[in-house]
Amino acid sequence: MDGTRCHHPIRPSHRIKRVTAAVAVTLGAVLSGLIGPAGVASADGAFPPSEKIFPATTRGWVSISHGPEFRQRFNRTQYGLLLKDPSMKPFIESVRKQLESSNSGRLGRLGLTLDDLLEVAGGEYALGAVESPTGKLATVVLVDVTGHDAEARGLVEKMNQRMVEQKGTKVAVNGGGPLTIYQLPVSENSGRSGEQRVAFALSGSTLIVGDDSSLVTQVISTLGQGRGDCVGGLPAFGTVMGRCQNQVPATAAAVRWYVDPLPFAKAYQATNPPREKRKGPDYVAILSRQGFDAVKAAGGVVVFDEGGHALRHHTMVYAPPLPGRQPFAADRFGLAARMLQFPDVEAIGPQPWVPRNVSGWTSLQFDIRNAFVTVESLVDDVVGEKGVYDDVIASVKEDPDGPQIDLEKDLVACLGSRVTLITDHATPIGTDSERIVIAVEAVNPERVAATVAKSMSIDPDMAKIDVQGNVAWELIDRSMAIPQLEVELPGGAVPHADHDDDSQRRRTKLRDREEKLLPHSVVTVAHGHLFVASHRDILERVLATKGDIESLGSAADYGQVATELNRLLPGKAATRSFTREDEAIRPAYEMLRQGSMPKSKSLTGQVLNGILGDGKPGTVRTQRLDGSTLPDFELVRRYFGTAGVGMQSLPDGWYITGVTLPRSQQEPELARRPVTPPQ
User: Fold this and answer.
1) What is the structure's pLDDT at 615?
2) What pLDDT score was predicted for residue 602?
């Protein structure tokens, strides 16, 4: 921002924009985390189940119970067939070369791929990310090579040759034995400093590879009987596996996984610090301070080609109530984590106004009123100063030059608990093609409409328009942040007499957090819901849908997925979703192919830019993956099917299951997708 604007107090409409943007980003991260183990190694394997070998300080763990069976199952799915399609070969080879040349990780510098390791697996394959005494992550891979001893020796030789090519120096090992250690020269591309080593060993029928020699040594010493302080002995691990373990046959060669979320994120930060110090909040630290460490674990099981499903997953997020608190109680967690309330209901299906041919639909039960109250400390923490949230709420209600809206009574109390997200895209695919609609149930839609009109009518950035006979408000100044309830002061650049220096300073800090999330947004109240759409055209489609055959609920592919979800997750639920994979992935696929992903204006593109960018305002990150060799999308569309996810709330967390069905005959579109007008 320029120096002149920085001296002006933030206008109330902008305050609400930035608070709602901060809340939306944070909630999106939390909910996405929610929306994301099975057969074990046989008793005659080369080692006990890997969860008995990895230590209790393991923050992340993945295991494939039987490598050969897993490969056969995966290769039979649409995903396996996609990777084997000749048209994908140039891209896959390009990705491998990019990974080899990046030298960004110590294990990566060994030149190993998942295929390399699975080719030598005769039993379990497992990977663990273990927190070391220094607070950083150490990685170790464990492979049962029973029946593949010769191939395993060949892989060890390949790693030795690779280390020579990387100018690694072999380190003497006390006592000899199977362990080999290499000291690596620091790679300019790694962004790391200090000592870098890799270690590997072929001990009997077990291959061990790691980037911490002491951890590899520990693993070798526990291959016989396991260890007492193992990750499998943690209560959280036992609870997660107890909920998910029996959901698939023991012969299904399942992928099991487990993560301790916030400790993993903290250790990952310590292990991979940014090359340049970046401004902005530390969300890992903020979530820890705000009570989200109540989520003790997440884990589950994934199977391929089982029971007619291309893929199926069963997941549990383990979040027991705090000591002395009751399950499902509003105060079962502390501080901002109290917003994690997702009440189950009898049935969740697409509303009649959800168009039949959209890419995806999700409905979530969420206690919005509770979130409005409990989000205060989180917003203050994100902004970096206590009192900002209350200051914004109070100014909207009390400022004599504002609309004098009581947000809690005039808006939040009038909303229900159901939130719906519709996703789609316009053609031709470009940086602004993705479309979303957020719909929030309104228990008093007349009052919500009056509140929206009162706010929007005095905002010069909003234009009153008609959308399918409904009064709507469209953002006309694309340089402004959006999209939620907005309030504008007449002559907003002039300080009011009641504005003290402290309030101005707080508002300036809030303004500096501005996020341009939905620069073309449209807001309206219709069908008993508050709608916020990314673009007018998608809202037109939604409000023009009359139900019956025009609605998603009547589509055959939706019905197939819904039937499977009802069978896997009978009874009440807090979430249901449906996705057509080909249409959902197409915008990102085309952006990657064009090399335009960093310029994407979609929420996904903006999130990626925030994670992968350099954090400097006005800069566009360089796309890290070269997608120029990807084939035309129509050549691979047939490999994508339909998917759905459901979630139920538990006394000690949440249970999530999802399924992907192979592609069936595509239904003809009932309505043509909107075409983006030429710029």
Assistant:
1) 53
2) 65
**pLDDT the model gives residue 609:** 59
β-pair type (196-203, 180-184):
antiparallel
What tens digit of pLDDT does each residue of 120-156 get? 999 999 999 999 999 999 999 999 999 999 999 999 9
- Burial category of 289 from C-beta neighbours within 10 Å (exposed 0-12, middle 13-18, buried 19 and up): middle
Confidence at residue 178, expressed as pLDDT on a 0 to 100 scale: 86
Angle at 386 between CA 384 and CA 392, to 5 degrees: 100
Q: How many CB atoms lie within 10 A of CB 312?
A: 24
Question: Rounded distance, CA 530 to CA 533, Å?
Answer: 10
In this prediction, residue 193 carries a pLDDT of: 52
Hey, what amino acid is at 593?
R
User: Dihedral through CA 197, CA 202, CA 203, CA 206, nearest 10?
Assistant: 100
The DSSP secondary-structure symbol of 355 reads: B
> Which of 632, 621, 627 has its CA nearest to residue 595?
627
pLDDT score of 26: 36
Give exposure, 583-610, as e/b (b: 16+ Cβ within 10 Å): bbbbbbbbbbbbebbbbbbbbebbebbe
- CA nearest 258: which of 129, 166, 410? 129
Q: Which stretches within 462-568 are classed as H helix?
A: 501-511, 536-544, 556-568
* Rounded Cα distance, 239 and 380, in Å: 34
Angle (nearest 5°) at CA 116 between 112 and 118: 130
Beta bridge partners of 472: 465, 524
What is the pLDDT, as a whole number, of residue 501? 55
pLDDT at 461: 87
CA gap 526, 322 in Å, rounded: 40
**What Rg, from alpha-carbon coordinates, does the chain have?**
27
> For the residues of 474-490, what is the DSSP string, one character each?
EE--TTS---S-----T
Partners of 295 in the β-ladder: none
pLDDT of residue 50: 97
In three-state secondary structure terms, 136 is coil
Q: Would the CA dihedral through 555, 556, 557, 561 be positive or negative? A: positive
Residue 46 has what pLDDT?
87
CB-based contacts of 505: which residues, under 8 Å, 6+ apart?
none
- Residue ranges of the chain with per-residue pLDDT less than 70: 1-44, 99-107, 175-176, 187-195, 477-517, 601-621, 664-679
CA distance 644 to 471: 34
Q: Residues 180, 200: contact at Cβ < 8 Å?
A: yes
